[in-house]
């Protein structure tokens, strides 16, 4: 443990609630002192004490190409030289919207996008748009899915809410929480029952394209397509939240791996993380008819001082242009290797586990049997994760500081980085077995 991290954390705790600006960074569920980072490059991050780690967090997804890719940094620097923020439209925003639409293609139904700054805003706006367009109030979400921290979407949410074992958040008025129906994931009967119980009242079903915020919870084959059909039959919209999966699991996100082949598309997509290349940028997109309900054309209000920020747009454009088939192939291969090594190491120590997977995303669940829904993810020996995590950290490998988070590989994880991960795993597995 570096004294420099202890000192940084002590100082931060006096100035910031919990010493952090986003809860999971506090290491609450793994204990110990969070590493305070000062730089990152490729597959590595460096803490305030000068120690380098192979990073498996990737800024929670955005660092698809690895940290500080030189061409992305150059694009941001070039944009910065022309001004940090104008509060007016720029041609590059249109370019990014066109690039996203083109990458998903006509079958996605995306004709227009609205750029925002965070995934939270993207899903919050998508919900408001769905309500505005349908004239209905209720929203269906799935337990263990995380769609950001807007009031109505925190019920039984994944990510930090799951890490802290919270049912939701204080400060959300009961009448607002009551507008969200939380259902078990991968359970179509529950969805049918909700529609039957609230005829004509459900505005939208929102789902992570593939669940990855309660550990990885992959949709069962046909689940997303059936959601599409059920929602349409009931006059509700389907919002596919690709904030985490979009442009990460493939060039056209999870939908590109599934919906494009199966011939279905949601009414609205939400994007974040990779689309901003590590800068604050997110988006929602859909048909022109639907998107034109947004102000200034329509009555559904949404705005943002920094929306479409030129630096963020430059980072997003550069990242998407560099995210070619080769980059995804490298990530897929690295993820297959690391997930396999994790499993081998735990098996060698006799630790019961499964590795839930959704394309290149995976996590560890210390249990036997498949993880289909949030209740399964919670029913595991989660106490095995902190010693596992800390053994990796001691060996210079920074895994996500919660068992309920996915592991993120990048296109920059080369042999040297992968070797370090592999070498660290037997000791970590021994710690998990203890
Ligand atoms: N939706 C999903 C699926 C996410 O994983 C996240 C964040 O992890 C969000 C929405 C919220 O995004 P942000 O943290 O940028 O507000």
UniProtKB/TrEMBL annotation:
Cofactor(s) it depends on: pyridoxal 5'-phosphate
Subcellular location, principal: cytoplasm
Catalytic activity reported: (S)-4-amino-5-oxopentanoate = 5-aminolevulinate
Keywords from the named record: Cytoplasm, Isomerase, Porphyrin biosynthesis, Pyridoxal phosphate
UniProt-recorded Gene Ontology molecular function terms: glutamate-1-semialdehyde 2,1-aminomutase activity
EC number annotated for this UniProt entry: 5.4.3.8
Compartment list: Cytoplasm
Sites of N6-(pyridoxal phosphate)lysine modification: 273
PROSITE patterns attached to this UniProt entry: AA_TRANSFER_CLASS_3
Superkingdom as given in the UniProt entry: Bacteria
SUPFAM superfamilies: PLP-dependent transferases
Pathway: Porphyrin-containing compound metabolism; protoporphyrin-IX biosynthesis; 5-aminolevulinate from L-glutamyl-tRNA(Glu): step 2/2
Matches recorded under InterPro entries: 4pyrrol_synth_GluAld_NH2Trfase, Aminotrans_3, Aminotrans_3_PPA_site, PyrdxlP-dep_Trfase, PyrdxlP-dep_Trfase_major, PyrdxlP-dep_Trfase_small
Protein family membership: Belongs to the class-III pyridoxal-phosphate-dependent aminotransferase family. HemL subfamily.
Subunit structure comment from the entry: Homodimer.
Protein name: Glutamate-1-semialdehyde 2,1-aminomutase
Organism: Protaetiibacter mangrovi
């Amino acid at each position: 443990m570096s004294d420099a991290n202890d000192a940084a954390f002590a100082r931060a705790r006096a100035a910031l609630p919990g010493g952090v600006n986003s809860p999971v960074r506090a290491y609450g569920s793994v204990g110990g002192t969070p590493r305070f980072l000062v730089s990152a490059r490729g597959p590595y991050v460096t803490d305030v004490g000068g120690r380098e780690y192979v990073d498996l967090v990737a800024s929670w997804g955005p660092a698809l190409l690895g940290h500080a890719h030189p061409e992305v940094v150059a694009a941001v620097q070039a944009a910065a030289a022309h001004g940090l923020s104008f509060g007016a439209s720029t041609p590059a925003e249109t370019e990014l919207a066109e690039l996203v639409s083109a990458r998903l293609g006509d079958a996605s139904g995306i004709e227009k996008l609205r750029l925002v700054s965070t995934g939270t805003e993207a899903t919050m706006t998508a919900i408001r748009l769905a309500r505005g367009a349908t004239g209905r109030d209720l929203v269906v979400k799935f337990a263990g899915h995380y769609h950001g921290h807007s009031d109505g979407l925190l019920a039984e949410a994944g990510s930090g809410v799951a890490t802290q074992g919270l049912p939701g958040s204080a400060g959300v008025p009961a009448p607002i929480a009551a507008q969200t129906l939380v259902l078990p994931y991968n359970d179509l009967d529950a969805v049918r029952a909700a529609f039957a119980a609230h005829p004509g009242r459900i505005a939208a079903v929102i789902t992570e394209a593939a669940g990855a915020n309660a550990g990885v919870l992959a949709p069962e084959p046909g689940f997303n397509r059936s959601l599409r059909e059920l929602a349409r039959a009931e006059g509700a919209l389907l919002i596919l939240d690709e904030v985490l999966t979009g442009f990460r699991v493939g060039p056209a996100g999870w939908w590109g791996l599934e919906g494009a082949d199966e011939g279905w598309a949601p009414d609205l997509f939400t994007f974040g993380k990779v689309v901003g290349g590590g800068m604050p940028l997110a988006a929602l997109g859909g048909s022109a008819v639907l998107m034109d309900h947004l102000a200034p054309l329509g009555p559904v209000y949404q705005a943002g001082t920094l929306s479409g920020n030129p630096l963020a747009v430059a980072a997003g454009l550069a990242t998407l242009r560099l995210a070619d088939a080769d980059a995804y192939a490298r990530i897929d291969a690295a993820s297959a290797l690391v997930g396999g090594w994790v499993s081998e190491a735990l098996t060698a120590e006799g630790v019961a586990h499964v590795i839930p997977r959704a394309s290149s995303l995976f996590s560890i669940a210390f249990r036997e049997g498949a993880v289909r829904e949030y209740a399964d993810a919670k029913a595991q020996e989660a106490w095995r994760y902190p010693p596992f995590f800390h053994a990796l950290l001691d060996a210079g490998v920074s895994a996500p500081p919660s068992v309920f988070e996915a592991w993120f590989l990048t296109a920059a994880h080369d042999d040297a980085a992968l070797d370090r991960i592999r070498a660290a795993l037997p000791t970590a597995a021994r710690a998990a077995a203890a």
